[in-house]
């Protein structure tokens, strides 16, 4: 399995040996087409190639922040390898080394200020801006007698990106998964219900209004439809049903919901020299298309009619989905190439990233950073059906 990256790369979090020269801006380092990234703990001497055969990892997970990227290897004593902007423990700009303090780590959460490490018996939070010898905060984890939890969930609550790190949750929720946005949270329960709380200024809570919620509140519009995954962007949210349907809500200024965006269409027309906002308004009045700025209720989006959505992830203002056929679709803000379409254009329609199909690769996972995207893919088995990669009986 190989990992690929594209999008914002000003700190070398994708192409770790990228260095800006005098006169270059951060945009010059951006990656608009997927490239295979080296996630091992070593310095790179050669330019990465698109299909690399040397980095096969059993269960490698990527965690991201705006300026950093962490790779957690299950076959490397559970240690993290860091790349990106220089952090205090212990890597420098570019390809970082292993975080020795993370040995035995089960999962991690990385932000601009802190690195949270989850172990079987404890959680540690390290300050990313200081070269500390011990974590700035830690907590012992009691035995979990409930459903299996995905970090940042821990028994009795969850670990936030900033102090106070531990936030309690009602045990009646039976939470199994939690996605943290910039100012809101989206929680999935064992029964498939969704609860949201935090700021609702852009409709990201999905309750039909823009009001904040201090405590988790059930999304009534989705009750009775069991959900299987949740994800949170900067100010938007998405989830998938048990049947592979995709639901979206929140801010849509850049088309990150996959719904028609008036602001985006206006920008596109300006760049094409066909008018701008006034032209976009004329088109709106002369057609049946309805433009969405804020979607305060969940809306169903057809990524593709031929298959189901199996994995989802959100960046600050873009979204990525993996289908059951192993294809990757992206949409939303694309100014740094984070859509992987070879351009810096944005899109309010889900579009397949053709690179993976052209290379005979099946996408198995996707992780969005705020302004970039990371994808794991495997070679399609030639003995399987070419479109679905499902073995058919002879």
Characterization of this structure:
- This protein is mainly beta.
- 6% of the residues lie in helices and 38% in strands.
- The chain contains three helices and 27 strands.
- It has helices at residues 262-271, 277-286, 354-358, and strands at 2-7, 31-36, 60-64, 68-73, 80-84, 94-99, 107-110, 114-118, 122-127, 137-140, 153-154, 157-159, 166-168, 175-180, 184-189, 194-198, 213-218, 227-232, 236-241, 246-251, 294-301, 309-314, 318-323, 328-332, 347-352, 361-368, 372-379.
- The strands form seven sheets. The chain has a four-stranded antiparallel β-sheet.
- Strand 14 and strand 15 (184-189) form a beta hairpin.
- Helix 1 (262-271) packs across helix 2 (277-286).
- The radius of gyration is 21 Å and the shape is globular.
- The two termini are 28 Å apart.
- The model is unreliable at 42-57, 87-96, 276-283 and 386-394 (pLDDT under 50).
Task: Provide a concise account of the structure shown.
It holds the Pfam family RCC1. This is RCC1 domain-containing protein 1. By secondary structure, the protein is mainly beta.
Contiguous helical run count: 3
Helix- and strand-based class?
mainly beta
Q: Round the Cα radius of gyration to an integer and report it.
A: 21 Å
Mean pLDDT: 85
Strand order of the main beta sheet, please? 2-1-27-26
The biggest sheet, with number of strands, parallel, antiparallel or mixed sense and barrel status, is: 4 strands, antiparallel
Using DSSP, what is the number of strands? 27
Helix proportion of residues, in percent? Answer: under 10%
Low-pLDDT stretches? 42-57, 87-96, 276-283, 386-394
Determine the oligomeric state from the structure: single chain
CA distance, first residue to last residue: 28 Å
Shape: globular
Elements, N to C (H/E)? EEEEEEEEEEEEEEEEEEEEHHEEEEEHEE
Estimate what percentage of residues fall within beta strands: 35-45%
Organism: Coregonus suidteri
RCC repeats: 192-243, 244-325, 326-379
Pfam families: RCC1
Protein name: RCC1 domain-containing protein 1
């Amino acid at each position: 399995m190989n990992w690929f990256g594209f999008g914002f790369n000003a700190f070398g979090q994708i192409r770790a040996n990228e260095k800006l020269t005098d006169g270059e801006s951060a945009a010059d380092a951006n990656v608009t087409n997927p490239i295979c990234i080296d996630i091992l703990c070593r310095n790179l001497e050669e330019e990465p190639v698109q299909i690399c055969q040397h980095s096969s990892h059993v269960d490698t997970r990527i965690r991201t922040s705006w300026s950093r990227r962490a790779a957690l290897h299950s076959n490397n004593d559970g240690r993290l390898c860091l790349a990106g902007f220089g952090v205090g423990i212990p890597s420098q700009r570019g390809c970082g080394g292993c975080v020795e303090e993370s040995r035995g780590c089960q999962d991690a959460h990385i932000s601009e200020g802190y690195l949270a490490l989850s172990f079987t018996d404890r959680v540690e939070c390290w300050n990313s801006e200081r070269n500390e010898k011990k974590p700035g905060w830690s907590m012992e984890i009691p035995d979990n007698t409930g459903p299996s939890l995905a970090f940042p969930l821990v028994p009795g609550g969850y670990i936030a990106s900033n102090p106070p790190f531990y936030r309690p949750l009602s045990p009646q929720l039976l939470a199994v998964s939690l996605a943290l946005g910039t100012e809101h949270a989206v929680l999935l329960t064992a029964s498939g219900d969704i609860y949201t709380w935090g700021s609702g200024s852009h409709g990201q809570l999905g309750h039909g209004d823009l009001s904040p919620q201090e405590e988790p509140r059930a999304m009534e519009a989705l009750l009775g439809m069991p959900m299987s995954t949740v994800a949170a962007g900067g100010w938007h949210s998405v989830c998938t049903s048990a049947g592979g349907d995709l639901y979206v809500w929140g801010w849509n200024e850049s088309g990150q919901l996959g719904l028609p965006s008036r602001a985006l269409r206006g920008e596109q027309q300006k760049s094409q020299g066909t008018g701008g906002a006034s032209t976009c308004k004329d088109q709106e009045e002369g057609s049946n298309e309805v433009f969405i700025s804020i979607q305060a209720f969940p809306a169903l989006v057809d990524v593709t009619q031929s298959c189901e959505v199996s994995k989802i992830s959100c960046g600050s203002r873009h979204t990525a989905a993996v289908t059951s056929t192993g294809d990757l679709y992206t949409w939303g803000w694309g100014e740094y190439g984070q859509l992987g379409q070879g351009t810096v254009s944005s899109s309010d329609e889900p579009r397949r990233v053709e690179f993976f199909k052209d290379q005979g690769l099946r996408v198995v996972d996707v992780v969005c950073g705020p302004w970039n995207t990371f994808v794991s893919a495997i070679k399609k088995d030639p003995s399987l059906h070419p479109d679905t990669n499902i073995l058919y009986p002879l």
